[in-house]
Design goal:
With 160 residues, the chain is α/β, with parallel strands linked by helices. It has helices at 3-22, 43-59, 74-86, 103-111, 137-152, and strands spanning 32-37, 62-67, 91-94, 115-119, 131-133.
Length: 160
C-alpha cells in the first residue's frame, strides 16, 4: 500500500467509523451528522470530507459539512457546532482548530445529546469529546524508521 493510499484509507476509515457511530439502528436513513474540519483547502481535510460524504451517502446519513475559512478559524467552528445543534444532528465529527477554546461549545453539543468525535486532533482535555480517532505519530515514526532500515539493509548505517 502506498503512503497516499494508506493516508486515504486512514482518513476514510476514521470518517466512516465516526458516521457509523451515529447510526444507532440497522438503518441510518434520516440520521443527521456534521463534519467540521479546519479548512476546505488542506488536502488531508479534503480527503476526509470526500470519505465522509461517500460513507454518508452509502448509509443514508444526512451529512452537513463545515470548515474554517482559514486554519485557526475557531469562530467558524463554534458557529458550525451551534448550527448542528439547532438542526437536530445526532453527532459531530470535528478537527478542532482551537482544542481548548472549542470545549465549552462541544460541551453544549454533548449536553444537547449529540455524540462528538474528535478526528486527527484530540481536544484538551481529551475527554471533552466522546471519542477521538487520531494517528499515533510516534508509532508511525517508529514504523517508518523500521521500514526504511529493513529496506536499506546494510546501507542503513550510511543513510541521512
Amino acid at each position: 500500500m502506498t503512503k497516499k493510499s494508506l493516508l486515504k484509507s486512514t482518513v476514510f476509515a476514521a470518517a466512516g467509523l465516526g458516521l457509523l457511530a451515529f447510526a444507532s439502528s440497522a438503518s441510518a436513513a434520516g440520521v443527521g451528522a456534521c463534519l467540521i474540519t479546519k479548512t476546505d483547502t488542506n488536502p488531508f481535510f479534503v480527503k476526509m470530507k470526500e470519505g465522509a460524504t461517500a460513507k454518508a451517502k452509502e448509509l443514508g446519513v444526512d451529512l452537513k459539512t463545515y470548515a474554517g475559512k482559514i486554519d485557526g478559524d475557531s469562530e467558524s467552528q463554534v458557529a458550525a457546532i451551534e448550527s448542528c445543534i439547532a438542526d437536530g444532528a445526532k453527532g459531530i465529527l470535528i478537527t478542532a482548530s482551537d482544542t481548548k477554546g472549542i470545549v465549552p461549545t462541544v460541551k453544549k453539543a454533548r449536553d444537547a445529546g449529540l455524540l462528538v468525535i474528535a478526528l486527527d486532533t484530540p481536544l484538551d482535555p481529551i475527554d471533552a469529546a466522546d471519542a477521538t480517532f487520531a494517528t499515533d505519530n510516534l508509532e508511525a515514526g517508529k514504523l517508518i524508521g523500521a521500514w526504511a532500515a529493513a529496506t536499506l539493509g546494510d546501507k542503513s548505517k550510511d543513510a541521512k
